[in-house]
Amino acid sequence: MEKLLQLQKITSEEARIFVFEGEKFGFDVKRIYFTRDVPVGQIRGHHAHKALRQVLLCPHGAIRVTLDDGLGSKESTVLDTPEKGLYVGPALWRTMEWLKPESLLLVFASQNYIAEDYIRDYDLFLRFARNQSK
Ligand code: TYD
User: Fold this and answer.
1) pLDDT tens digits along 30-47
2) What's the gap in Å between 35 CA and the centre of ligand 1?
3) N- or C-end of the chain: fewer Cβ atoms within 10 A?
4) CA pair distance 25, 21, nearest whole angstrom
5) β-pairing, 43-49 with 93-98?
6) Per DSSP, which regions of the chain are E strands?
7) Residue 2: is its pLDDT beyond 80?
């Protein structure tokens, strides 16, 4: 279910540069946003998307991402290094737990913000996931 992507790390004088080539995303990036200033311990997300595809990065701090496919599989990944990206496809119920202060969640998304693409009710999500898998 989970697809971890490795960023290229370039160590130059007094800096580290992290590079992720566009073709590794598997989709055209339509939008970029980030979430910051979240208190440690807060768990965000609690939704799935019908079509949206995303790559999540945590360039600073640590965030635990848990993905549930609604069909019995649930996997957690701690994004705690800028070198790691996580591809999150559609029909996955996600939660993101802030583990460290000042953690930053950077998201590359395949679509603009579309409120109707969200599934925020877990029972509806389970039905959606079952239908998708048929
Ligand atoms: P949401 O995606 O639920 O955040 P998280 O996954 O971190 O819990 O978004 C939180 C709120 O912000 C929700 O009311 C929708 C709104 N929002 C926008 O208006 N535009 C956006 O691009 C995003 C990502 C969220």
Assistant:
1) 999 999 999 999 999 999
2) 9
3) C
4) 8
5) antiparallel
6) 3-6, 8-12, 15-19, 31-35, 43-49, 54-60, 63-68, 74-79, 84-88, 93-98, 104-109, 118-119
7) no
Supply 35's token pair.
Answer: 């979430």
**Ligand 1 mean position, distance from CA 38 (Å):** 13
Instruction: State how far the Cα of 69 lies from the Cα of 76, in Å rounded to an integer.
Output: 12
Would the pLDDT of 67 be above 90? Answer: yes
Which one is predicted more confidently, 132 or 44? Answer: 44
Total residues belonging to the chain: 134
CA 68/CA 8 separation, integer angstroms: 28
The SS3 call for residue 33 is strand
Please identify every residue annotated as catalytic: 47
Q: How far are the Cα atoms of 9, 18, 42, 120 from residue 83, in angstroms, in the given order?
A: 7, 7, 23, 30
24 band by pLDDT with thresholds 50, 70 and 90: confident
Q: Is the pTM of this model over 0.85?
A: yes
Token duo for residue 43: 């768990």
